[in-house]
Amino acid sequence: MSDQEEFEVEAIGVEVNVQPIELYKVLKIANVVNGGGEAKHMISEGYVGVNGELEQRKRRKMYDGDVIEFNEEYYVVICDTPVGELPEIEEKPQFIPIEPEYTEPKPKKAKKEKKKKQKSEIPTTIDPESGRRSINFF
What we know:
This is RNA-binding S4 domain-containing protein. The protein has 138 residues and is α+β, with helices and mostly antiparallel strands. It has helices at 23-29, 36-44; strands spanning 12-15, 21-22, 48-50, 53-54, 61-62, 67-70, 73-78. It has a domain at 12-78: RNA-binding S4 domain (Structural Genomics Hypothetical 15.5 Kd Protein In mrcA-pckA Intergenic Region, Chain A). Helix 1 (23-29) packs across helix 2.
């Protein structure tokens, strides 16, 4: 027998639209973690295996056919697009702003004069020792 044992397992397919894709993203797409932070934590703590080996690199590149083991479940990466190609995206018409023709500026309204706040009728006193004014709360 060879030093690598092959065995057959039932795996859940995780369809992705681009390859390579990072390991933590595959766990998010498979919906086995609540978010990217949790996925990265699980990977770095050693709870994830890839192709039969323990994997602790969060951004390990995954390709079509790679098998991931997590929480006693197996997942296989499925991708139809070739390596490095981005999936075809329908091109949307781009919005190009058109400058309006020159128009006369609108006349500005006259500004109202602001009334200056009148200081309280009680004169403020200056403390001769510190040179500070007294504080009136009411």
